[in-house]
Structure formats: C-alpha cells, structure tokens
Amino acid sequence: MELKWDQAQEIAEVLAENHPGLNPLQVRFTDLRQWVIDLDEFGDDPGASTEGKLEAIQMAWNELYEENSDD
C-alpha cells in the first residue's frame, strides 16, 4: 500500500516507528516533508504537500508521542 499526503495517521505511525522518542513538535516542516517523501511506503506526488497536510501529520504523530511518553 502506498501512503498519500492525506493519510496523516498512517504516515505518523510510520514516522513514530522510524524516529522513536523524537518529539515531533521539534521537527521543522522542511525536515518532516523530506522524511515523508523518503518513506518506502510513500507513493504520492512530493509537490502535493501543503502546510496543512504537514501539520496534520505532525499533530497525529504528536498524539502517538504523547501516548507513548505517558507509559
């Protein structure tokens, strides 16, 4: 399955696995965009990213990060 920009939750789950313990709120959007594009599972147009899509991914990833930091 190829991930698309609008699959924020699924992308966030892969990023959380690839970058355990990293606070996603400290990641610049330029880095976040590149990390998404570099995912093996990613199959969307790199030029289709928007600030809103990146923010949705970052917020979904942050929810996972906060859940795991409560353990």
Write up what this structure looks like:
- The structure is a single chain.
- With 71 residues, the chain is mainly alpha-helical.
- It has a single domain (8-69), classed as Arc Repressor Mutant, subunit A (Orthogonal Bundle), CATH 1.10.10.600.
- It contains three helices and no strands.
- α1 (8-18) packs across α3.
- The protein is globular.
- 21% of the residues are buried.
- The mean pLDDT is 95.
Give me the secondary-structure topology.
Layout: H1 8-18, H2 29-38, H3 51-69
CATH architecture: Orthogonal Bundle
Taking all Cα atoms into account, the compactness measure Rg is 11 Å
Low-confidence stretches: none
Helix content: 55-70%
Q: Report strand %.
A: under 5%
- pLDDT average, as an integer? 95
> Can you tell me the CATH superfamily?
IscX-like
Topology pattern, helix = H, strand = E: HHH
The CATH topology: Arc Repressor Mutant, subunit A
What is the number of helices? 3
Number of strand segments = 0
> Structural class from helices and strands?
mainly alpha
Report how far apart the termini are: 30 Å
CATH class: Mainly Alpha
Q: Looking at the structure, what is the overall shape?
A: globular
Q: Sheet with the most strands?
A: none
Number of domains: 1
